[in-house]
């Protein structure tokens, strides 16, 4: 890193990957379904008032992803495969439930309209014809409702109306946008390390600026190199992260802001012997 070309350098052994647990998978199954249903219902209510094309499904995916990341912290689940499978299920439920809730709303409105017509004096004279009209207006199920909506068409930009197969394709791309947005948020939210010993996510313990003397002592202790040009205390910043139980290795990240060569970062995993020494160096006032 002395030549400034390397952007990132990692030293030491990170914590072991989280193991698969059946209990965690059993919890995530109903959580994913309920979360997908909740997001789908909210998206349906909001979408009836404001649903810009492409932007709205992306927003739904972002909200869903944020909720999933929050659940990983609440349930302390670090097995990435479990989380991503739960995300796939939640996206499927959220995308499908929007059409189902729209079907329920449409059926409810038609039934209310039919009841108002039945209460009119002329309804008794046309009872038989009215029964046929009810059967014709009411969708027989979610699939029948979507087929009717596809035949009516979906307004698109530039005055184009997607009908038939094109409407189904547009709904497919809506679901794909939800999935892509959720993947981006969940991937970003799960980059943090996870300790399988105490089953907790790593969090920042302390952070701050380093003096040149402190940075030099940390480099000698942990083995990373200080690039040329990092002479000001404002150029060097550190963050120290660890698990909740303190049973895993701590993560020390030292970052240099170089005006001409961008940012250089060194990540060091500290064992029990080096944890105390690093804390002592950081606690000392630098020159």
Per-chain topology:
Elements: E1 8-11, H1 22-47, H2 55-75, H3 80-118, H4 127-137, H5 142-152, E2 154-155, E3 161-162, H6 165-189, E4 194-195, E5 200-201, E6 203-209, H7 212-222, E7 236-242, E8 250-258, E9 262-270, H8 272-283
Parallel strand pairs: 1-9
Antiparallel strand pairs: 2-3, 4-5, 6-7, 7-8, 8-9
**Order of strands side by side in the largest beta sheet?**
1-9-8-7-6
Instruction: Please give the largest β-sheet.
Output: 5 strands, mixed
> Radius of gyration, Cα only, in angstroms?
28 Å
Number of strands: 9
> What distance lies between the first and last C-alpha atoms, to the nearest angstrom?
23 Å
Task: Explain this structure.
With 287 residues, this protein is of the alpha+beta class. The protein has 2 domains: 8-15 and 196-283, no CATH class; 22-194, no CATH class. The chain has 8 helices and 9 strands. A 5-stranded mixed β-sheet has the order 1-9-8-7-6. Strands 2-3 form a two-stranded antiparallel ribbon. Strand 8 (250-258) and strand 9 form a beta hairpin. It is elongated. Residues 1-6 have low confidence and may be disordered.
Brief characterization of the structure:
With 287 residues, this protein is an alpha+beta fold.
What attributes does this structure have?
alpha+beta; 8 helices; five-stranded mixed β-sheet; two-stranded antiparallel ribbon; 287 residues; elongated; 2 domains
């Amino acid at each position: 890193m002395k030549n400034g070309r390397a952007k990132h350098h990692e030293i030491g052994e990170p914590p072991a990957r989280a193991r698969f647990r059946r209990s965690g998978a059993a919890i995530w199954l109903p959580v994913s379904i309920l979360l997908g249903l909740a997001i789908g219902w909210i998206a349906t209510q909001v979408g009836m008032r404001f649903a810009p094309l492409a932007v709205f499904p992306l927003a739904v995916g972002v909200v869903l992803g944020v909720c999933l990341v929050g659940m990983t912290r609440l349930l302390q689940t670090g097995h990435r495969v479990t989380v991503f499978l739960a995300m796939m299920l939640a996206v499927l439920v959220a995308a499908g439930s929007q059409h189902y809730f729209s079907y329920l709303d449409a059926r409810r409105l038609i039934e209310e309209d039919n009841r108002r017509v039945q209460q009119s004096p002329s309804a008794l004279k046309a009872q038989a014809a009215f029964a046929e009209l009810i059967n014709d207006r009411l969708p027989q199920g979610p699939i029948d409702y979507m087929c009717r909506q596809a035949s009516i068409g979906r307004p698109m930009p530039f005055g184009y109306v997607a009908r038939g197969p094109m409407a189904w394709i547009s709904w497919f791309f809506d679901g794909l946008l939800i999935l892509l947005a959720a993947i981006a948020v969940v991937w970003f939210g799960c980059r943090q390390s996870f300790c399988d010993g105490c089953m907790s996510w790593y969090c920042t313990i302390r952070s701050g600026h380093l003096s040149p003397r402190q940075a030099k002592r940390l480099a000698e202790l942990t083995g990373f190199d200080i690039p040329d040009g990092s002479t000001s205390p404002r150029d060097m910043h550190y963050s120290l992260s660890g698990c909740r139980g303190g049973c895993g290795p701590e993560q020390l990240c030292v970052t240099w802001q170089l005006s001409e060569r961008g940012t250089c970062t060194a990540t060091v995993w500290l064992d029990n012997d080096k944890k105390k020494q690093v804390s002592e160096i950081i606690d000392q006032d630098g020159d």
